[in-house]
Amino acid sequence: MERVCKNCERMLYANQDYCPGCGSEWIDYRLTPKKITAEFSERYFATDNRFLITVLHLLSYPENVINGYITGQRKKYVNPASFYFISLTLIGLQVFIMKTFSPELLGFTEELEKTSLKGYLDYFYDYMGLFTAFLIPVYAVSGLIIFSDTKKYNFTEHLIFFIYVYGLSNIIISLFTPLFIIFEVSFQTSSIILAPISLIQIGWYYKRCFKLTITKSIVKTILIFLLYTVMQLFLILFLGMIAIGMIYLFNPEFLSNIKIA
After folding, report:
1. Contact, 146 vs 132, CB < 8 A?
2. pLDDT of 117-144, one tens digit each?
3. Domain assignment of residue 131, yes or no
4. Does any domain span residue 20?
5. In 3D, which of 131, 57, 40, 54 has the Cα closest to residue 92?
6. DSSP character string of 106-172
7. Measured between alpha carbons, how far is 206 from 221 in angstroms, rounded to an integer?
8. 214 belongs to a structural domain
9. Would you give the DSSP letter of residue 77?
10. Is 50 exposed, middle or buried (0-12, 13-18, 19+ CB in 10 A)?
């Protein structure tokens, strides 16, 4: 009996349970809680799941994921854009959970609730993932400059490098959310604690991907961090000036209410 694929509408024959065009499985059963649970488990926790493999290899063999994608490997691992968007979703879930159960850990105090700053802080946390994503190109430029002697990666390839780095960092941070709430660790404190770990991660990744000595990887990572810090400060000042200008144009009374002690 001939059938038509429900995803790409390609013709399937009686003995074909998977579409030869898009690879989709032929599904012909009613949804039940058991079926949904099984599908979720298979999609996200199966040993052949690309997302799980990507995370595990980024923890153990990051050069396989990063250099593999750069050199044309597209099927084994989750592509960097999808991986980063998954991490942003988890960060968004983390912020939602902390807002719901422990808003004080995000700085939402009773005093803040009475001021107009609450709306701005709310806005920042709602779009925090996108804000931090804008800093990834700054890291990529820093890496491109510091590794200009090797010319192994171009700008886009350094960008891929840091997308995987911060995608994994976001995922790990989001998994620690229950511990942050239990031990009452503020979001700002957790960021300070995890910053050195991210720096170590970057150094280790560069060591693996570029086959560097420990000394050279440490030196180059420190140089990248220093250059990134300088560039980030200039970027923050620039964006801050734009923000103040926008507030002055659309909400000047907010600036008049700010008192400098």
Report:
1. no
2. 777 778 778 888 777 888 899 999 999 9
3. yes
4. no
5. 131
6. GT--HHHHTSTHHHHHHHHHHTHHHHHHTTHHHHHHHHHHHTTTT--S-HHHHHHHHHHHHHHHHHH
7. 8
8. yes
9. S
10. middle
CA distance 26 to 53: 25
Q: Which two tokens stand for residue 90?
A: 């988890």
What is the tens place of the pLDDT at every residue in 43-91? 655 555 788 899 999 999 999 999 999 999 888 899 999 999 989 998 8
Yes or no: say if 78 and 86 are a contact pair by the CB < 8 Å rule: yes
Joined tokens for residue 231: 């560039």
What is the spatial distance between Cα 67 and Cα 85, in angstroms, rounded to a whole number? Answer: 20
Q: Determine the residue type at 148.
A: S
Residue 253 host element (H or E): helix 252-256
**Looking at residue 48, what is its pLDDT?**
57
Q: What is the pLDDT of residue 122?
A: 81
For the cut 50, the answer to whether the pLDDT of residue 261 exceeds it is no
Backbone angles phi, psi at 208, to 5 degrees: -75, -45
Domain of 178, in residue numbers: 47-256
* Pairwise CA distance, residues 233 & 210, whole Å: 28
User: Whole-angstrom Cα distance, residue 12 to residue 184?
Assistant: 56
C-alpha 133/C-alpha 127 separation (Å) is 10
Which of 188, 170, 163 minimizes the C-alpha distance to 65? 163
Kindly state whether residue 6 falls inside one of the protein's structural domains.
no
Token pair listed for 204? 């280790």
Q: 146-155 long-range CB contacts below 8 Å, 24 or more apart?
A: 146/220, 146/223, 146/224, 146/227, 147/206, 147/210, 147/220, 150/210, 152/210, 153/70
Per the rule left: phi > 0, alpha: psi between -120 and 50, beta: everything else, 184 is left
Looking at the structure of the chain, the number of domains it has is 1
